[in-house]
Amino acid sequence: MGHDHGNVIKEYMKVFYALMILTLLTVGAAAMPFPHDWGTPGDILHVTIGVVIAVIKVIAVMYIFMHLKFDNPMIRFFVYVPVFLFFVLSFALNFLESWAYVH
Q1: Is pLDDT of 44 > 60?
Q2: Local confidence band at 102 (pLDDT 50, 70, 90 cut-offs)
Q3: Beta strands in 8-99 (DSSP E)
Q4: How many other CB atoms are there within 10 angstroms of residue 73's CB atom?
Q5: N- or C-end of the chain: fewer Cβ atoms within 10 A?
Q6: Which distant-in-sequence residues (6+ apart) come within 8 Å of 30 by Cβ?
Q7: CA dist 93 → 2, 43, 54 (Å)
Q8: Distance CA 41, CA 3 (A)
Q9: Is 78 exposed, middle or buried (0-12, 13-18, 19+ CB in 10 A)?
Q10: What is the largest CA-CA distance in the chain?
């Protein structure tokens, strides 16, 4: 039943560096200038980029730090699906709210 987790510190450091790079990408994406003519679609694009990067960061943390990498695939399914649906629902509500302001 025991799993060989290998060099855990090395994996933690890889995830740490990936999270730092993704955080820098998030900051860069937020500062990315879009033409003012774009208006709300430019704002939606900022949010979309930020959410996509956040999802990648959440999956990395769940997979390594929550040790889902070593769990049964069925357990991973029951963890990842609700998290995915949460992000889809949050993003959809954000999109619908911004759509209401435009129309």
Answers
A1: yes
A2: low
A3: none
A4: 8
A5: N
A6: 46, 50
A7: 43, 15, 17
A8: 47
A9: exposed
A10: 59
Number of Cα atoms under 13 Å in the Cβ half of residue 29: 19
What is d(CA 8, CA 60) in angstroms, rounded to the nearest whole number? 14
Answer whether 0.70 is exceeded by the pTM: no
Rounded to whole angstroms, the Cα distance separating 39 from 98 reads: 11
Cα–Cα distance measured from residue 2 to residue 70, given in angstroms and rounded to the nearest whole number: 10
Output 81-86 pairs: Cβ under 8 A, ≥24 positions apart: 83/58, 83/59
User: Are 51 and 87 contacting, i.e. CB atoms less than 8 angstroms apart?
Assistant: yes
DSSP labels for 68-90?
A: GGGS-HHHHHHHHHHHHHHHHHH
Give me the amino acid identity at 88: V
Helix (H/G/I), strand (E/B), else coil: 7:
coil
pLDDT for residue 24? 95
